[in-house]
Structures are given as structure tokens and as C-alpha cells.
Amino acid sequence: SLYAAKVQSRGLSAVAQCESLRYKLLNGLAVRRACYGVLRFIMESGAKGCEVVVSGKLRAARAKSMKFTDGFMIHSGQPAKDFIDNATRHVLLRQGVLGIKVKIMRASSSPSDPTGEKAGGKGLPDSVTIIEPKEEQPILAPASQDYGAKAAQAQAMQQQMQQQQAAEGQEAAQDAPASGAQEY
């Protein structure tokens, strides 16, 4: 059984762009012109970067390779596996076989995909998002219990106790000399 599904965005599919370049070369379009056309289409589709390599007998009898790059491309680590789409195709021309390689780096956080779910489910590990702080409202009065009132009340009670003790001490001092005078 064969399963086929339509590609969401043709410009971000390395296989689709590799096949497109292959048919352009089979129809006799110049290599440089065909590659730049594919490169421009990929970047306009919203890719972060792309690379097209064509190698083989391009014009002369001697084989060489031409590399066309645009944008930002990573080459190592797990993000390279997560964000880069690769495709390789071969074109059989009159003078020999050409090899075509297309690498497309999908955008990790585009405006349409802020979480990066389309590109591996996460953003690049070294990308930094700066979030603006919210305006804070100043707190005028505490919303919960008034703990300051309890402390002030306890302090007032303590002062009253001291005043009562002082008043009792003065009364005792006045009584003491009177009783002492009677002893003489």
C-alpha cells in the first residue's frame, strides 16, 4: 500500500525543492540560475537558512561542485537533527550524472509558530526570549489582618501595667513613712 499526503509548505520541504531543482536542470536551465531560483523560493517561504550543493560535470569535462547558501545554518549537535531537513537526488544528463543536495533549516520560533512545535517541538537551545515585565500596582494597605494593631494594643497594655505598678509603689511609699513616724 502507498500512502501520500500533501506537504504543508512546499518551500520548507527539502525533498520537494530537490525535485524542483532536478526538473529545472533536466529541462536545460543553467545550474547557477536554477539554484538561485530555488534558494530564493526557500528563503521567501520562511526558512531560517538553506544550502544547495550541485556537484558533477557542470560545464567542462572536469567535475566540480558549486555550493549556494543563504541565511543561518547549523551543522552539529541535536538541533541540527531537529531543525534541518535534508534531501539528495541524482540527475542523469547527457554529459553525466549530477548530484543535488538541499538542506533547509526551519525557523524555530516564527511568528506563526512561537512555541516551535512545527520545528521539533522546541526552540534552539541558545535562543533567548526577553519578556517585558508587567506594570505592578503599589499596595496601599495590607489586605489581610492588621498585625500592627495587635502589637500596638499589646504595647499599650504593657504601659498601663507599668503605670499601675508605679501608682501602687507611690502609695506604698507615702504609707511607709507615716507608719515609721509612729514608731518613734
UniProtKB/TrEMBL annotation:
Cite the InterPro entries for this sequence: Ribosomal_S3_C_sf, Ribosomal_uS3, Ribosomal_uS3_C, Ribosomal_uS3_CS
Region feature (Disordered): 107-184
> Where does the record place the Small ribosomal subunit protein uS3 C-terminal domain?
22-104
Q: Which GO terms describe its cellular component?
A: cytosolic small ribosomal subunit; nucleus
Tell me which Pfam families the record gives. Answer: Ribosomal_S3_C
The keyword Ribosomal protein is annotated on this UniProt entry: yes
Keywords carried by this UniProt record: Ribonucleoprotein, Ribosomal protein, RNA-binding
| SUPFAM superfamilies in UniProt | Ribosomal protein S3 C-terminal domain
Its Gene Ontology molecular function terms? RNA binding; structural constituent of ribosome
Question: What segments bear the compositional bias annotation Low complexity?
Answer: 149-178
BP term (GO), one: translation
- Protein family according to the UniProt entry: Belongs to the universal ribosomal protein uS3 family.
Specify the protein name: 40S ribosomal protein S3
